[in-house]
Amino acid sequence: MGASGNNVFAVLANNIDVIAGPVISLAFPLYASIRAIETKSRADDQQWLTYWVLYSMITLFELTFAKVLEWFPIWPYAKLIATCWLVLPYFNGASYVYEHFIRPFYRNPQVKIWYVPRKKDIFSKPDDILTAAEKYMEENGTEAFERLISRADREARARRSDYMLFDGENYYEY
After folding, report:
1. Which regions in the chain score pLDDT beneath 70?
2. Which of 16, 30, 70, 94 has the fewest CB atoms lying closer than 10 Å?
3. Phi and psi torsions of 137, nearest 5°
4. CA–CA dist 173, 159 (Å, integer)
């Protein structure tokens, strides 16, 4: 056991990132996320949602810069340490990143990432049936609104009828 036992420990020590990485970055967060779903606490939901967002960003970074990261032999260990900081409840790193970086940026964005053109005064009035009817009458007049209502009424009656004929503008029920 002497030489082979030391050899096993040497292999484990040299590949700690390969062994511990998936456990720390995937297995434990998966278990903790499921536990967080089952609780009523917002703090653990925030911790684990933030962790998964950060983990996705790290993974995208790794996939994008894989060839460059091959030149840095310390990268797997740095990633393991950063993941431990994000995951372990003692540090609560994911919550720290959310509170100090993501939330301030989200609450007060310095850079507009998405440009979405908005109609003027889209949120000024509630968009319900009464305001829509008032707007239609302002634009088209009350006679047009009455014609619209009567046509909708005829169509509703025609759908309830078993037999009907349609002749351009008129419905004939039998």
Report:
1. 1-5, 109-128, 158-174
2. 70
3. -70, -35
4. 10
The pTM (predicted TM-score) of the whole model is 0.55
- Contact criterion met (CB below 8 Å) for 105 and 94: no
- What letter does residue 122 receive in the DSSP assignment? T
* CB-CB contact of 108 with 60 (8 Å): no
Burial class of residue 33, CB neighbours in 10 A (0-12, 13-18, 19+): middle
Which residue type does 51 have?
Answer: Y
Kindly state the tokens that stand for 158: 């025609």
Q: Are 98 and 45 spatial neighbours (Cβ–Cβ below 8 Å)?
A: no
Place of tokens 């740095």: 78
pLDDT for 66: 92
Tens of pLDDT along 21-54? Answer: 888 888 999 999 999 999 988 888 888 999 999 9
Say which residue the tokens 């970086």 belong to: 101
Q: CA neighbours within 13 Å on the CB side: how many for 79?
A: 21
pLDDT at 161: 60
Inter-residue contact 164 to 172 (CB < 8 Å):
yes
Question: What length does the chain have?
Answer: 174
The confidence score (pLDDT) of residue 62 equals 93
Closest CA to 29 of 100, 88, 79, 76: 88
Residue keyed to tokens 């088209």? 140
C-alpha span between 76 and 64 (Å, rounded): 15
